[in-house]
Amino acid sequence: xxxxxxxxxxxxxxxxxxxxxxxxxxxxxxxxxxxxxxxxxxxxxxxxxxxxxxxxxxxxxxxxxxxxxxxxxxxxxxxxxxxxxxxxxxxxxxxxxxxxxxxxxxxxxxxxxxxxxxxxxxxxxxxxxxxxxxxxxxxxxxxxxxxxxxxxxxxxxxxxxxxxxxxxxxxxxxxxxxxxxxxxxxxxxxxxxxxxxxxxxxxxxxxxxxxxxxxxxxxxxxxxxxxxxxxxxxxxxxxxxxxxxxxxxxxxxxxxxxxxxx
Amino acid sequence: xxxxxxxxxxxxxxxxxxxxxxxxxxxxxxxxxxxxxxxxxxxxxxxxxxxxxxxxxxxxxxxxxxxxxxxxxxxxxxxxxxxxxxxxxxxxxxxxxxxxxxxxxxxxxxxxxxxxxxxxxxxxxxxxxxxxxxxxxxxxxxxxxxxxxxxxxxxxxxxxxxxxxxxxxxxxxxxxxxxxxxxxxxxxxxxxxxxxxxxxxxxxxxxxxxxxxxxxxxxxxxxxxxxxxxxxxxxxxxxxxxxxxxxxxxxxxxxxxxxxxx
Lengths: 262, 262
Known about the structure:
Two copies of one chain form a homodimer. Chain A is of the alpha/beta class. Chain A has a domain at 3-185: Acetylglutamate kinase-like (Carbamate kinase). Helices cover 37% and strands 22% of the residues of chain A. Chain A has nine helices and 14 strands. The first copy, chain A, has helices spanning 11-14, 17-28, 43-50, 66-90, 131-139, 162-172, 206-214, 223-234, 245-250; strands spanning 3-9, 33-38, 56-58, 61-63, 95-98, 108-110, 122-124, 143-146, 149-151, 157-159, 178-185, 203-204, 239-244, 259-261. An eight-stranded mixed beta sheet of chain A has the order 5-8-2-1-11-13-14-12, with helices on both faces. The first copy, chain A, has a two-stranded antiparallel sheet with strand order 3-4. Chain A has a two-stranded antiparallel sheet with strand order 6-7. In chain A, a hairpin with a 2-residue loop joins strand 3 and strand 4 (61-63). In chain A, helix 3 crosses helix 4 and helix 6 runs parallel beside helix 8. The two termini of chain A are 19 Å apart. The interface between A and B is large, with 41 and 41 residues.
């Protein structure tokens, strides 16, 4: 099967012009089909503050009210997405920026209210991902740049976690492509010792993960990423790599840096 | 040749939820290939005010400074574009939202500084419009929803008049499609008497236009639209229709309302 890279970047790349430029140069040079999923970075919070939109949290989870979904639709779907697309075009990479509503690629359901009403947050409906449309775009050599937004099929945009968007796409396309999912974040990989940037764990298997959990070696923030990674592997993704943006892309294959999850 | 509608809507449709919903219902029901070009409406000005971004005008022309290009990229390319796309998807119309940077569809050059520096305003480079990419997207039955933004090929987004975006696309695609260009605005058509909504001129030929100019019957605001229309006709567009949004789309063919320019 043909190779497809699904690469997710977050605030540490997006918020810094130099980091972003360096990352996009490496990304553009990957000579294979590729999808870039981006988060929003700090700019959404900054613009939200200027617009007087309060960030509301319940139990540490952000609530997406009506003003906030408009804010993230503007900032993620407009400002950040188009800046990336324009920069990729300048690097001769034929990028096309999408949200989950465009070409209906990622239908979702507004998260049901149980204890907490998260507001306009979308849970991806995996079986409704428009694989055929994604394939048409990839087959025509477009590089897809995807904002972490979905839609409910009734005209409402929804806010969806960028890690989840990336893993959902990776899984959905794993029947047609040999998919490598790469999570770029601010550390060099999954660390044995969170204080020591050089303590990257090279390989995490399920057995190793259980051991790390038992030994309580992992910091909390990394657990959802690893869970997401194993869910992707269990559903057909060939391998998942977690680590620092530039390290990973300079060494897309073979992997000499970061944490490989298999 | 296959028929293609290129339809432009402005603030009077976009700013009013009901008008927009009614328009999109009609638009979605057009059973032919179609491109929708939208302006930004008042919401960009409103959000700009909230963000403390001054609207600067010289000789009545808006200047697009750095803050303003970010603003319109957010609002036109994000908020307005994705709202329209999500609503069209809810009407089973497989829409994909684009700016001129996406799929490189509309490269432009930053307007050269002569007497006035307009800032980040893009003049479309007609011969660089990515006709092949537009054809691929249309051939795969995507409905294109296009924000009035272009890019300079060096990573910079640019602001471009929506009427010009529509006519440039219409002309560029007129070799491959039988293109009808429709300008929807707040009046019923080109009026003989600007005070009288019923005084719609049914047909404007070049001779008629000269006569109207000589008689000074036309109000100033309509002249650029008519000039744009004739430029499109001279370059291969089959016909141009100017009038009220819902009138026009309810009667896409044959035209019983609005002003036909031929």
